[in-house]
Write a structure and sequence with these properties.
five-stranded antiparallel beta sheet; two-stranded antiparallel ribbon
Length: about 160
């Protein structure tokens, strides 16, 4: 019975969705950056006392567009100006696309090294948002509904997720 349960768990485990840490750049600093211990509590910073100033001590912003680039949405004219081209954007999108934004602003950070231990107190504002949208939405907004006369535009997989 235990072997069967272990086999079922082993087969189902890869199908689960997991959320990992997103701030990989902080790991590179190791103990030189005091805020690294928020991601890895095993790291003890090198400093005896740390006071983080609001906003200045740590601000992080991450944008993931799923492979979308500025060249996919804008045209450059002879004067080196950029012009938004919705048709070009729609043609470069997948059937369904995602846009993710993660941000973190530290409001307060206090750290104190006591013998072999490190005590820290942090207050931060975190924002995590994701938007899944179909190519037809971009085409509809950018070009109007002329291309879709007499048709039904399906927006059933439109999804917005946000938390702060």
């Amino acid at each position: 019975m235990a072997a069967r349960l272990l086999l079922i768990i082993t087969l189902l485990l890869p199908s689960l969705t997991g959320w990992a840490q997103s701030q990989f750049s902080m790991f590179q600093f190791g103990s030189a950056l005091p805020q690294t211990n928020q991601l890895n509590p095993g790291i003890i910073p090198e400093y005896k006392v740390v006071v983080g100033l609001p906003v200045l001590s740590s601000t992080y912003l991450h944008l993931n567009s799923g492979g979308l680039t500025m060249n996919n949405a804008f045209d450059r004219d002879a004067n080196d100006s950029l012009h938004f081209n919705p048709a070009k954007l729609a043609s470069n999108l997948n059937e369904y696309n995602r846009l993710e934004v993660n941000g973190n602003t530290q409001l307060l950070y206090l750290g104190l090294k006591v013998k072999k231990n490190y005590l820290s107190l942090a207050l931060a504002e975190r924002v995590d948002a994701g938007f899944i949208f179909p190519r037809t939405l971009v085409s509809l907004v950018g070009n109007g509904n002329g291309d879709y006369l007499g048709e039904t535009v399906a927006l059933d997989r439109l999804n917005l997720r946000a938390q702060a």
